[in-house]
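Why does residue order matter? Because the sequence determines the fold. Keep that principle in mind as you read this record.
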Amino acid sequence: MRANKEQIPIILGSATPSIETLQNALAGKYHHLILSQRAGLAVPTTNKVIDVKGQFLEAGLSAPLIAELRRHLEADNQVMLFLNRRGFSPALMCHECGWTAECHRCDAYYTYHQSSNEIRCHHCGSQRPIVHQCEGCGSHQLVTVGVGTEQLEAQLESLFPEYNTIRIDRDSTRRKGSLEAALNAIKNNEYQILIGTQMLAKGHHFPNVTLVALLDVDGSLYSSDFRASERLAQLFIQVAGRAGRASKPGEVLLQTHHPEHPLLQSLLHKDYRHFAETVIEERKLAQLPPFSFLTLVRAEANNSNDVETFLRQVRYSLEAHPLFDNACMVLGPTPAPIAKRAGKARWQLMLQVPSRPQMQKIITAAKPVIAQLPLAKKVRWSLDIEPQDLS
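Structure:
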């Protein structure tokens, strides 16, 4: 927008443009340039899927993946494993009665962090010492559920003691300069096995990495967020871009219980452009962005009834606007995906409008009306125009 106001040409560069940006290019709003080859001597990666149905998993690792890791390591290459889940385990559960350690302030489970011997909530930041006894039945039989980067690191050190392993996530890079030091050590080949979250997915040049593995992608295939598949596709392309960046060929492996899923098949055998054009057609049929425009009204308070009542009044205010017609829609109010965070009850309301000017006029007129509602001072509320995160 700034470049448009100043009449300055601007270049938007991405291997994985958002669906909205790509639609602007396809519609002729942006001039579209396509780079069809990788830089330098790099060749396209070989993409494969590992069906883990019925397979025994060691800290999230299947036997075929372990074999591939060993093959690449024995060839004096580096390997990267991607798992977007910090900590040792995402939940701590009682083996006797099924009780699970939950954050008292959020609608979420505590994550077990073995390195600091504590459980933490990744939503409000609260933490407490590790519990050794079930709060439900008093049993001491507590087990970890699921796999985080800490557990994956411990398993790989056990499987490949002759190779050096490094974990890069928000927990391991808190100290100033630690991330830069870790990246330099990787480039100097001091570590052969790299474990990372989204921090390691893009922007880094590791010429000796020849294998990249994504361990857990199934959650994105059936998410309630309509952008989840787009984010998974972008992540896949970005993570795949870490493999085979020099003269060595790269390989990308996806572990999944659903190898037949159309999204995975599209990513494995086509390219991001093909995937994106398919998604554009789906969104056009469903009238989702970029073919409609959304505003998310979020509200939170100590009392859940106050928040729900407030958002119902907001809904009436929006529907009363003269420009609100049959093409407009209000969804909700409904509890937010994380219904309680930091002790507050959270609800949300979605306004869907076919054009941006129409949405702007409705929101501009409704905002002062909403501010004057009786409950407006009792709840904390916000308007998120064209939201990227629906949680």
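The longest helix spans residues 304-319.
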